[in-house]
Design goal:
about 160 residues; alpha+beta; three-stranded antiparallel β-sheet; 5 helices; about 25% strand
Length: about 160
Amino acid sequence: MTYFSVMQIDMYPAAYVAATGSARSAQILARLVGERCPGNVLGIRDTADFHGSKSNGFIRDCARSFEVQRLAADELMAEADNNPDQLTKWHVYFYDSGAGKYRFKVNAYLDHDLRVRAKCEADPELVGKEVIYGESPTMETLYLMLDAFTSRWMATA
């Protein structure tokens, strides 16, 4: 079984928080702990880092709490049909600058990247959002998604 680790990446070296069995469950844990422990930046690794430095006990206990574990399990079950392999979740954001040849823009960020996602969702130029599961989307994939979004956007305008 491959393990994935939740790491506190705003420290050097990155401190171990918890380990889990899939990329998506690690991502969910990182997001849930990040919501409960604001000011800490959490990420995931595709190895179990049991022997490295460890984050403080409060953060590790938060990741192992009944509440966080139940919420993570509920979320995995809710998206089981769309993501049976429990791959990482990416949020793709579409922006409309209102004029010019390059009017529409696209960006993609991981689900657990709370700070960047909050900035994207507060951007006044944001006009659409999609979710995809898998490896990091390539520029080709993002541009194809942007073309499809632009076509739908122009058809409804």
